[in-house]
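Dear Dr. H.,

I hope your travels went smoothly. While you were away I took the liberty of generating a structure for the chain from your last submission, since the lab meeting agenda had it listed for discussion. I wanted you to have the full record in hand beforehand rather than looking at slides cold. The sequence, exactly as received, is reproduced here:
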Amino acid sequence: MRVVGLVSLGLASALFLAACGGDPVDAVAKAQPATGDALAKYAADISDTVDLAGNADLVQLFCHNGFAGPCPKGITTTLTEAGFANGGSGVDLAHIFVTLVADKTDGEPDFSSSDEDYFHAAYRVAFGRDPGEGGALDNLRFIQDTGNRKTMLRSLLESDEFKRQT
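The corresponding predicted structure, in token form, is as follows:
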């Protein structure tokens, strides 16, 4: 009976992984960062549901932009522990990356950051660069005035600059 139960559990796990796009650890490790048409589609659908395996190229883009290189080992576990559940939106995924980058900046792994640290991390994750002067400061004022960080982040992820990354 125990062997049958273990086989059934293994089969159920395999079916679950297949339904969710496969093994996220393997998919992310093998993926290249999203570019071109994929980025244009992500920008248009950034509020839609994503999962770590099925959207591994987006995960790699956020790693490359936010951490200046491929995703580190254990990133899928880190994202899950930070609150990303498969079925969250692209904005939710980016928000967790922004939080991780901001925590790295402020030296406190507490998923809490100042508006300024969040703002800088959002530009890093979305574009792979620090914010410039001018219009970018309007985004900082927006989150300071409204407290709505995800709305500001979504606007970055829907922007032409996000779509044009190579």
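Two observations you may find useful: The chain has one domain: 23-163. The CA atoms of residues 19 and 47 lie 20 Å apart.

With kind regards,
E. W.
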